[in-house]
TrEMBL record:
Organism encoding this protein: Micromonospora globbae
Keyword check for Acyltransferase: no
Domain of life: Bacteria
SUPFAM superfamilies on file: PLP-dependent transferases, Winged helix' DNA-binding domain
Keyword Ubl conjugation: no
GO-annotated molecular function: DNA binding; DNA-binding transcription factor activity; pyridoxal phosphate binding; transaminase activity
Residue ranges occupied by any HTH gntR-type domain in the UniProt entry: 26-94
Keywords associated with the record: Aminotransferase, DNA-binding, Pyridoxal phosphate, Transcription, Transcription regulation, Transferase
Protein name, UniProt field: PLP-dependent aminotransferase family protein
Pfam families reported for this sequence: Aminotran_1_2, GntR
Length: 485
């Protein structure tokens, strides 16, 4: 079933469309069409969604139907709308233009390159002592084969205790250890998603999740997030689940990557109820749940509202601890964990025992490590915000209450061009289209604050220098896309 946006919902997304730049020089229908194109370009209005009937939208916006008719006609002429008499109108992009979210390559070892494509911290000082302690524990495991498809029991118990401390009672039987969060997602998709099945994701979202879904040949639909406020439009998100009835929905409710939004508790509960009614499985990525900033309270886990084994939670050590420690996990029902283990043996048997032991010792020191991380990230975030306000004041940024990234709205649809230009001055960026589908999000840029404050300020200085000369720059040479994590 095709998802549909109602008149009141689209009116809310359009907001103050009368006050768009250039409004005084444009008739009402042109301004309305431009506003709809803007929503499509930002990813807030998904592609392939059916727009409200002309009369319905006219009533919602309190304008004449003639104005809406002319706006729809202009959208059809520009290739942003497809209509069929008696069936409605659907959003699209001109010429079926599509931008892939994959295409990874290994960054060059350039000491002068400031890499803002990877949103990950360097290792904490406690890693060395944890590694030494792990080697002392290792002899206990050397007498066996070393294969533990669900993970060693010490680590599964430690992860289960962390969930229980968050108010979600969990046993070790509900935990499966994986080789990172991305591996956890891949295994869940292998188990829960048949090729060609429908999946709902946020827009923007994590690029490597889109790559994993593409590998499963999933049919992806999107729910657009707003830059300000709560991010998720409750009516549109719940409507997408109820109407589209996707087989699976991939959500990042805790300091969403890349926007930093935090989903409120009441919406979490409603999403779980809607998913159960629609027969949709929820894959909840909790990679950033340990990194609230400014003493922001974190709502209950999405799985705490689950009574029907519809929610599968994934997380890992990469963001709070270190990306080089490839330890992730899945929290699900005990039968689901056993099915995941059976599917896993066709991929990689188990995660390294030594890495798991290191993780056990790091989790034992979690309060001190995570507190240091939060303080570090807060200072670096504020340094980045200050540099942007000083050097690029026309950019708009919603201050995240947690996580490790800013989602910046630029002063034009220049994200990809800016990323190419910044590479020439030693800054690697993650342009907006990498976080969406079909060439949208060109007015946005993800900026992680995981590097030292001095590097972030220097990066902004270099970006600002190329931004102001971008319109006069020569046509750039094509280059390979960069790793985004």
């Amino acid at each position: 079933m095709t998802s549909q946006v109602r008149g009141a919902q689209l009116a809310r997304l359009l907001g103050q469309w009368h006050s768009l730049p250039g409004r005084r020089r444009s008739p009402d229908y042109a301004a309305l069409a431009a506003a709809v194109r803007g929503l499509l370009a930002d990813g807030r209005l998904p592609l392939g969604v059916r727009l409200p009937a002309e009369r319905e939208l006219a009533q919602a916006l309190r304008i004449s139907r003639t104005t809406v008719t002319a706006a729809y006609r202009q959208l059809r002429e520009s290739g942003h709308l497809a209509s069929r008499r008696g069936a409605g109108s659907w959003t699209m992009l001109p010429g079926t233009h599509r931008v892939t979210s994959s295409g990874l390559w290994t960054p060059l070892d350039d000491l002068d390159m400031i890499d803002l494509g990877v949103a990950a911290l360097s290792a904490p000082p406690q890693l060395l002592s944890a590694a030494r302690a792990a080697t002392e524990d290792l002899p206990r495991y050397l007498g066996g084969a070393g294969y533990h498809p669900t993970g060693i029991v010490e680590l599964r118990e430690a992860v289960a205790e962390a969930y229980t401390a968050r108010g979600l009672p969990t046993s070790a039987d509900q935990i499966m250890v994986t080789s990172g969060t991305q591996h956890a997602l891949d295994l869940v998709l292998r188990l829960a998603l048949a090729p060609g099945a429908s999946v709902l994701v946020e827009s923007p979202t994590y690029p490597n999740a889109l790559a994993a879904l593409a590998a499963r040949r999933a049919r992806i639909t999107t729910h657009g997030l707003a830059l300000d406020g709560a991010g998720w439009d409750a009516e549109l998100l719940l409507g997408s689940i109820r109407q589209g009835r996707p087989k699976l929905a991939y959500l990042i409710p805790d300091f969403q990557n890349p926007t930093g939004h935090l989903m409120p508790a009441d919406l979490r509960e409603r999403v779980v109820a809607a998913a159960h009614a629609a027969g949709t499985d929820l894959v909840v990525d909790e990679s950033f749940v340990d990194l609230p900033l400014d003493a922001t309270p974190v709502p209950p886990a999405v799985a705490s509202f689950d009574r029907h084994s519809r929610v599968i939670s994934i997380g890992g050590m990469s963001k709070p601890y270190w990306g080089g420690l490839r330890i992730g996990w899945v929290r699900a029902s005990a039968p689901q964990v056993q099915r995941l283990a059976a599917a896993r043996v066709g991929v990689d048997m188990s995660s390294p025992v030594l890495d798991q032991l290191v993780a056990v010792h790091l989790l034992a020191e979690a309060p001190a490590i995570v507190a240091d991380r939060r303080a570090q990230l807060t200072a670096q975030r504020d340094a980045l915000l200050g540099a942007l306000a000083s050097r690029l004041p026309d950019w708009r940024v919603c201050v995240p209450r947690g996580g490790v990234t800013l989602w910046a709205e630029l002063d034009g649809p220049i994200s990809s061009a800016l990323a190419r230009a910044a590479e020439e001055v030693g800054v690697r960026l993650a342009p907006g289209p990498r976080f969406g589908l079909d060439g949208t999000l060109e007015r946005f840029l993800r900026l992680p604050f995981t590097l030292p404050a001095a590097d972030l300020v220097e990066a902004v200085d270099r970006i600002a220098a190329v931004r102001y000369g971008l319109d006069r720059a020569a046509r750039p040479q094509w280059r390979e896309p960069a790793v985004i994590a």
